[in-house]
Amino acid sequence: MTKEQDGEPFGYGVVANVSRETAHGVGGLEIRQGLKHFAPGAKVWIAPTRWGVFDEVVVAGRHRGHGRRYVTLATKLRFLENFRVSGVHSPALLRALSRPGPGVDRDGGLWTAEQAEAYAAFNNAHRLEVRTDGPDGIRAWVSDPPPMELVHQDTTYHLAHFNAYYARYSSQPPPVEAPTP
């Protein structure tokens, strides 16, 4: 008896939905409904990556115009939301997650339960890349909307600007306006 006949999953995967509105263009000012290949709210499965790629992932999901067939392609992580863990029950989905691709882990396209939970929790909490001033830039992620202050190695950084892609922090405090007479 196979796992599918027993009702047991082949393994675990990280599932997300395509954002209803996706930001494109300079500063994220061009708003679109979903993505070119996936409808808004479409369920996609994220393939485990071989190395730490933070802004782009390989996903498998039902194509917007191709009926029930799974397609595998790379997309920006910022276009996905509502990360969670689910069992992989479909052999077709397992094949789609295991297709060769840039940076895709070839361990069958599945996650361990612990890896999947950690990945989903991280991506639900951290949505914007941090950029700081100075030569010692920080590589980090923050929630959306970002916090007003960020402390790193005893240095306080103040939120200077944010958009759909990143949050920029400055080590200089914000200017204080002079009181009006």
Q: Explain this structure to me?
A:
Helices cover 13% and strands 37% of the residues. It has helices spanning 3-6, 91-97, 113-125, and strands at residues 11-18, 21-24, 30-33, 43-46, 56-62, 70-76, 80-88, 128-132, 141-142, 149-152, 155-162, 166-170. The strands form three sheets. A five-stranded antiparallel beta sheet has the order 6-5-4-1-7, sandwiched between helices. Strands 9-8-12-11-10 form a five-stranded mixed beta sheet, with no helix packed on it. Strands 2-3 form a two-stranded antiparallel ribbon. Strand 8 and strand 9 (141-142) form a beta hairpin. The model has no long low-confidence stretch (mean pLDDT 81).
Offer a concise description of the structure.
The chain is mostly beta strands and 181 residues long. 13% of the residues lie in helices and 37% in strands.
Helix-residue proportion: 10-25%
Query: What is the CA-CA span between the terminal residues?
Result: 83 Å
Low-confidence stretches: none
Order of helices and strands: HEEEEEEEHHEEEEE
Give the overall average pLDDT. Answer: 81
**How are the strands of the biggest sheet laid out side by side?**
6-5-4-1-7
Shape, per Cα inertia axes: elongated
- How many β-strand stretches? 12
Taking the sheet with the most strands, its summary is: 5 strands, antiparallel
Rg of Cα set:
20 Å
How many helices in DSSP terms? Answer: 3
Going by helix content, strand content and strand pairing, the class is: mainly beta
| DSSP strand content | 35-45%
